[in-house]
Amino acid sequence: MADVPFLSRLRSHEFVALLVGSIFIIFEGALHIIILFLPKSVINWFYLKSRALFHYFVGADTSTPEATRFAHCIRKANDFEDLCALFGYHNVEEHVVLTKDGYLLGIFRIPGPRNEPPPVPGTSTGKPVVYLHHGLLMNSEVWVCVTDPERSVPFVLAELGYDVWLGNNRGNKYSKKSIHHDPSSSKFWNFSIDDFAWHDIPDSIEYILQITRAPSLSYVGFSQGTAQAFAALSIHPQLNQKVNVFIALAPAMRPKGLSAPLVDGLMKASPTLLFLIFGRRAILSSALMWQNILYPPIFCRLIDASLVFLFSWYSHNITSTQKLAAYSHLYSFASTKSVVHWFQIMRSGRFVMYDDDMYTPTLRPSKHNPRPGYRPATFPTRNIATSIVILYGDVDSLVDIDAMRHELPKHHLDIRCLSGYEHLDVLWGKNVHVDVIPHVTRVLREHCENPELIRTDVNGVSAKATLHPDATWGARSAHGCENGGTSGYATPSDT
């Protein structure tokens, strides 16, 4: 049989996956074009019919009208500042960090409690500084799209007296600009975890410390936000002096793989197959289209089904109203290359840097030749000098805690297990104010600069207790959620 370039490198199951993926991409693209030309009246008709069918087969929402209305307000919020305003935080600052390789990163600051007069923007408050970073395919909104402020890490920390900063990766909603490349160019999207570690994390931290004039800050990461910190701290020794503690929520370093055997096996066999399916720019950018045209509870059901299929996450700890509020803020732009990088890590079983030689490693490891070809460079995570505290769920399929114990320095590593928690539960679980946030606040107090400036309670209520937004922070009634939204769910014209 003749050797055909490109095609001869694919195996039979890769042909099948490529064919199915291509059909789906073509169908989705055609649907996108059709929707662009359809009048709003037609789209609204399909939307209302889908809502009627959903209620007929599934039943009406059993949540209280107030809870549903407020979740709807959160779902409709346009950006980070709108979300914070729903809870009374009108003191939010937006900053722009220029990385050493030319990307412009949007980062946000909550300089203090809701009722405290805001400082002059861009000046030091003298408070202990905390930096929070999101996960893969996310942005900083995931920290604040909660239905109760007591379950938001940045809101609780701001009320306790911390100077809270929230970062964003290059390419996402708030960082889609570079001084060198246009976002429509594939060169703009040519980045992976390596670039987050070499530039985004250290450059953001350096900027924050310059503004706050603090000698160090505390880092709280979620999912890939922890991997970026593990990588950055391992390759920048001087960065360890600027981070007084690293709290890793649902950490990701060496995931074993996906729960869907076909997808997991295929991507591990040939991670770069993703380039053939999704191209070399942003991955899953069409998610925003589906989010806008589907009835919100149906969109939530699709997300739930996808999480079960890919990761075996059943999200029992996340309420239906929280899903309605948060799932519309779950996705943000990310490069296909960064996802390919994760499958390279899963395939190699090591926390490796991106492997640019995409064809040589197609030789599979075997019993007699466990390391065929060559070895991509590994992030030297045992060199991390910063104190590390890990909070992970015992039913989180992406956390391999034994691998982390082996790869991280043991003398300043503290690991806490959260019983019954999955991955997203650590962000949006109904009891994070009891199971997660008290651990975070205690650790921060032990390691932060000037801990004497930190309060032990929020508005007279212990940080370990429940804070009802109506009674304590007045978020819903004071900021016109009822006036800004509508009863029930919005139609596509409202989104």
What does this molecule look like?
By secondary structure, the chain is α/β, with parallel strands linked by helices. It contains 20 helices and 10 strands. Helix 3 runs parallel beside helix 12 (320-326) and helix 6 packs across helix 7 (224-235). Residues 476-495 are annotated as: Disordered. Pfam families: Abhydro_lipase. Keywords: Hydrolase, Lipid degradation, Lipid metabolism, Membrane, Transmembrane, Transmembrane helix.
| Element pattern in H and E | HHHHEEEHEHEHEHHHHHHEHEHHHEEHHH
Q: What does the overall shape look like?
A: globular
Whole-number mean pLDDT: 84
Uncertain spans = 3-7, 460-480, 482-495
Strand order of the largest sheet: 1-2-4-3-5-6-7-8
The Rg value, from CA coordinates, equals: 23 Å
Beta-strand percentage range: 5-15%
Q: Helix/strand/pairing class, anyone?
A: alpha/beta
Distance between the termini: 54 Å
Helix content: 40-55%
Topology summary:
Layout: H1 12-37, H2 40-58, H3 65-76, H4 80-86, E1 93-98, E2 104-110, E3 129-133, H5 153-160, E4 163-166, H6 193-212, E5 217-222, H7 224-235, E6 243-249, H8 261-269, H9 273-278, H10 287-293, H11 296-311, H12 320-326, H13 336-348, E7 388-393, H14 401-407, E8 413-418, H15 425-428, H16 432-435, H17 437-447, E9 457-458, E10 461-462, H18 469-473, H19 475-478, H20 481-484
Parallel strand pairs: 3-4, 3-5, 5-6, 6-7, 7-8
Antiparallel strand pairs: 1-2, 2-4, 9-10
Helix pairs in contact: 3-12, 6-7
